[in-house]
Structure formats: C-alpha cells, structure tokens
Design a protein that fits this description.
two-stranded antiparallel sheet; Double Stranded RNA Binding Domain; single chain; alpha/beta; 33% helix
C-alpha cells in the first residue's frame, strides 16, 4: 500500500510550510523547499518557487486531500462535552468526509472558473493538493441511537496546507498555509453535521477561489 509514502509526503509539506513557525518567531523568507515568501493580503503564508508562472497553467489535477485533526482533538472533546463521545471510528469517518468535501469543492470551483480538470498528472498540468490540518470541530454531530443536541458559539477552525506542483517534474511551485475560523457571535447555535459541513464548505470555496484568482491574475509569481 502507498499510504506510508503519502503520510511522509504530507508531513514533509507541513514541515516545509511551518519551518520555524514557533510562537513568537517570524516565518522565514525562504522555506525548506527553496520557495520564497510573497505577500498575499488574503492568506497567512504563501511561498513561491523562483521563476514560476502560474498563469501558464489552464489544466489542473486535484489530488485527494489528506485531513488531520488538531492534536488531541477527540480526547479534549470527550473530556469537555458531556453526552458526546468521539470514538476512533467517528474520527476516521469525519476525516474521510472532510477529505471528500475538500476535493469536491476545489473541483467544483476550478471547473466553474474555466479550468480543465485533468484525470492524471501530465506535462502542462498544475497538480493541486489541498490538505487540511489542525481541523477543530467544536461541536461534532456524532450519530448515536440516543439523540443528543449540541450547541456552540463557533463551528470551529481549520488550516489549509496547499501545495501546487508542476505535473511534469513533480516539483513544488507554490505552498500556502492559511487558517480560517468560524466567527463567534456571542450566542450559542445548534450544531448539526450538515451545518458543520456548510460552514466548512464556505471556507473551502473561499480558498479555491483565491487559488483561481492567483492563477488568473499572476499574483503568485516567483
């Protein structure tokens, strides 16, 4: 199976995006993959390979995303939420659901924006890997025989760890890290699985549109 390799690649991407990203330390101007930091007012961190031109790509291949919960998410939730117990199988199901949702939204938006969706990596294709890290669902709606209503001020937060690679060489041309958090309005709201997915979809659509914008206007140029 290829999963161990996929996990190593995923870890390498996160290391590349968050080198010296410890509290109180500035992010580097050049990351571990040799990509240079550029300013983007819509996103937390963007790194671009020298001499890269995203505007050359009109065909994209969207890889299946990897999804990773915040460390100790299930343990902390089980300790703090009475009546809600998250088992490993529940966590895995949510990981699969959010990976599927992420792939679906990026495919939908890129297609709407006029990009050709490729079935495989190839020359002239931009490979898009929209991984999700630090997923923190504040009030997950876990199906149980006995119905338990869950409420919270915010749906939670998650971070996009986006890698763009050239389809022919496999080399990264852009890496992005951006955290989005659902606003807190000062009152509790009823949370369901569909409402959590709806909130996540809104964040994912924003990220996918930012990607399409950056390709079209050449904003991420090395």
């Amino acid at each position: 199976m290829k999963q161990p390799i996929r996990t190593l690649l995923f870890s390498a991407v996160i290391c590349g995006l968050s080198a010296v990203a410890l509290a109180g330390e500035a992010t580097p101007n050049v990351n571990e993959n040799g990509l240079r930091k550029v300013h983007d007012r819509h996103l937390d961190e963007v790194y671009v390979a020298p001499a890269s031109r995203l505007s050359d790509y009109r065909t994209v291949y969207i890889e299946q995303p990897a999804v990773q919960f915040r460390k100790n998410w299930a343990r902390d939730l089980n300790r703090s939420h009475r009546g809600t117990v998250v088992y490993p199988r529940d966590e895995q199901e949510l990981i699969e659901d959010y990976a599927r949702l992420t792939h679906e939204v990026f495919t939908e938006i890129m297609e709407k924006r006029g990009f050709v969706i490729a079935e495989s990596r190839d020359e002239g294709t931009l490979v898009v890997r929209p991984d999700i890290v630090d997923l923190d669902i504040v009030a997950p709606d876990i199906p149980r025989a006995q119905r338990v209503d869950v409420y919270s001020e915010s749906a939670g937060r998650m971070t996009l760890a986006l890698t763009l690679e050239d389809g022919a060489t496999g080399k990264p041309v852009v890496q992005v890290s951006d955290m989005k958090e659902d606003p807190r309005w000062g009152y509790m709201e009823w949370r369901t699985r569909p409402s959590n997915y709806s909130d996540a979809r809104r964040a994912l659509k924003s990220w996918a549109n930012s990607l399409a914008d950056a390709i079209e206007d050449g904003r991420w140029t090395g």
